[in-house]
Structures are given as C-alpha cells and as structure tokens.
Design goal:
The structure holds 2 protein chains of 2 kinds. By secondary structure, chain A is mainly α. Chain A has helices at about 15-25, 30-45, 50-60, 65-110, 115-140, 145-160, 165-189. Chain A is flat. Chain B has 2 domains: about 5-135, no CATH class; about 135-175. Classes of the chains: A mainly alpha, B mainly alpha.
C-alpha cells in the first residue's frame, strides 16, 4: 500500500510553525525560497513542485516581501486561513526579535569607531546586494518600448529626482498593467 | 493626531505595504524618503539600520521593524511591522486563492508582465537613493560596486559572506 500523494496527511499547525520558524531563523543572507523548497517540497513533500513554483511566481510579483507571501501561500495550502497565519508568524516573528535585539545592541555600541566602520562596509555591500536584485528583476522585463519606458520612468522619478514614491507608483502601475493587458490582446489576436 | 508617532508609522507603512510590488526592496526609496522628511533619525543611523536588517535573518524589509523601534520603541516596532506585513498579506491571500485555478488566463500574464517593470524600476531607484544617503565615501561606493559584481558573477554564493568581507575591508582600509 502506497500513500496517496494527492491527499497527504493533515499537517499539524505546530509542525508548520516549527518548520517556518526554523527557515526564518536560518535564512541569513536571503535565498529563502531555496530553503523553503528544500524543506517543504523535497524533505517533507507537503506540496508538489508545480504548486510551489506557481506560489513562488505570484509571491514575487505581488506586493509584500517574497518570503512572507510564499509562507502565506504554503500555509494556506496546508491548513487554510489559520495555516497561512501560522506560517507567516513562524517565518517573521523570530527574525523580528533577532533584528530588534541587534538594533538595541547597536545603540549600546554607539561609541566604538571600528564597529561603525564595519557596519558602514556591511551597508555598502547590502546596497550592492540590492542593485544585484534590481538587475535581476530588470532581466525579467520584456524588451519592448512600453515596459522599458515604465522601468526607466520609475528609476528616474523616484531614484534620480527623488519624487515621493507613493503617488508616482499609484499613477504608473495602472498604466503599466493596461499596457501589458493590451499587448496580451495583440498576442491573442 | 498627526503628532502621534504610532499613527505616523501607520500612515507611512500601510501605503508602502500595498505598493511593495515585487517585494521589500522596491519600497526602500519610499522608506528612506519618509524617514528623512519626518526627521525620524539621521541619514547615517538609517543606513546602519538598513545594514543590520540585511545582515540579520528574515527579509530585509524588517528594516521597517527597526524604523518603528527607533521612532517609538517596542510599540513602534510592533505597529510598523503590522502596518507593513498585514495589508500586503491580505491582498496576496485574496489573489492567491484565485491564482492557481486560473492558470494561463490573460489577466495572469498581464499582471506578471505589467508589474515586472514597476518592481525593477523601483528596486533600482531604491538602490540609488540608499547609495546617495550613505554619503560620498569613495571606499563605500567601491565596496557597493564590487559586491554587485561578485553577487552577479556568483549567484549561488551566500550574500552573508560578501557582507562580512565588506565590513572587514571597511575597517582595515578605512
């Protein structure tokens, strides 16, 4: 008798909390989706590959931290709404406590010069990390006039001119979605 | 009421949550803008908190938790975190339930194609804003450029190594 993979045993909320807390705490330096894939799909087989990738793709484009969205998605699949909440809390709460402790320690060491230099160096590398993420995100943009214009427009207004982000994004995003919708129509035709 | 720091945190982070298209890095420019226009902390303190959030476990956007803490202590940290994570989660949750059922539909690909350039433009804008806020030290700009190159060249490398080495370089050279 083989277990039917389509209807896996009900996963307990405590197990969800434990796995996500573990992933959250071990996720130094990012690459969380790789960790989650290993723990959820490969080791525990709580979800199949296609389902995981579909949730990952959606989490990467929608508002919200990618890992937070992916946690919600997996939690929801396993145990519905309550599962989603438990997964999200497990993923975020432990790192939040760590980050706060680090922040409080940082305040205590305000006088140590070399430590400040160290943090400045880390910050510079963290900026490099963000640029890298931006470049990777740019590679996913279609090489056509419309999308490229949207990208450059946002970079110029928010980055170079430093216009406030909220109104700019509220104006530009619907335009970008409309363009995409219309270009899909052309593909369909 | 606008003087209440907790309300101010809500006013800043709820809209940013809903507009964090493509993930946390896309609202870096927005967070920096709010912090500097409301005089919540010095530019330098902000950059340091950005570094701490990036080097610690969890998403880098836990920077919001640290900003909240700096503005209004532990209650501020809690309020900022909720304001940042709850609204986007509600939207995501509502859409995720429709997502798999409608795979391959037109609004699916329109959403993907339409949001991708917004996310990319915002992340690059945020990088520039933070780079400028970090001051004009050529060493730090060089570290940022070198880190970008290393991470693009070796995508599997754990970024924590790059952050650590960069810190040591800044101490030794600077």
């Amino acid at each position: 008798m083989r277990a039917e993979p389509a209807t896996p045993a009900r996963v307990s909320l405590l197990a969800i909390l434990g796995v996500f807390a573990k992933i959250g705490l071990m996720s130094f330096g990012g690459a969380l989706s790789g960790w989650m894939h290993r723990e959820i799909v490969l080791r525990r087989q709580w979800m199949d590959e296609a389902d995981f990738l579909s949730g990952l793709a959606l989490g990467q484009i929608m508002p919200g931290a990618n890992v937070a969205n992916l946690s919600l998605y997996i939690g929801q699949r396993l145990r519905g709404g309550i599962g989603a909440v438990v997964a999200l809390v497990g993923m975020l709460l432990p790192p939040m406590i760590v980050v706060l402790v680090l922040g409080i320690l940082y305040d205590r060491v305000a006088g140590i010069l070399w430590l400040h230099r160290f943090i400045d160096g880390v910050a510079a590398a963290a900026i490099g990390l963000t640029i890298m993420v931006g470049i990777r995100a740019s590679r996913r943009v279609e090489r056509r006039l419309g999308p490229v214009t949207i990208l450059l427009l946002l970079f110029f207004t928010v980055g170079v001119l430093r216009w406030p982000m909220v109104p700019v994004v509220i104006c530009v995003t619907p335009a970008s979605l409309l363009l995409a919708w219309l270009s899909e129509e052309r593909h369909d035709a | 009421m606008r003087d209440n720091p907790l309300i101010a945190l809500l006013i800043v982070f709820i809209p940013l949550s809903l507009l964090s298209i493509g993930g946390g890095p896309s609202i870096l420019a927005g967070i920096q803008n709010a912090v500097s226009s409301r005089h919540w902390m010095s530019e330098h303190d902000f950059i340091d908190l950005f570094a701490i959030a990036r080097a610690a476990p969890g998403p880098g956007v836990l920077l919001a938790t640290l900003v909240g803490w700096k503005v209004a202590g532990i209650p501020g940290a809690i309020v900022a975190s909720l304001a940042l994570f709850v609204p986007s989660s509600l939207v995501y949750y509502a859409i995720a339930r429709q997502w798999s059922a409608h795979r391959g539909k037109r609004w699916h690909s329109a959403l993907e194609l339409g949001l991708a350039p917004v996310a990319a433009g915002l992340i690059l804008a945020g990088s520039l804003v933070i780079l400028r806020a970090s001051g004009g030290d050529p060493l730090l700009w060089a570290i940022a450029a070198a880190s970008t190159a290393v991470l693009l060249w070796a995508p599997k490398l754990n970024p924590l190594w790059v952050l650590g080495v960069a810190g040591v370089v800044a101490v030794v050279v600077g």
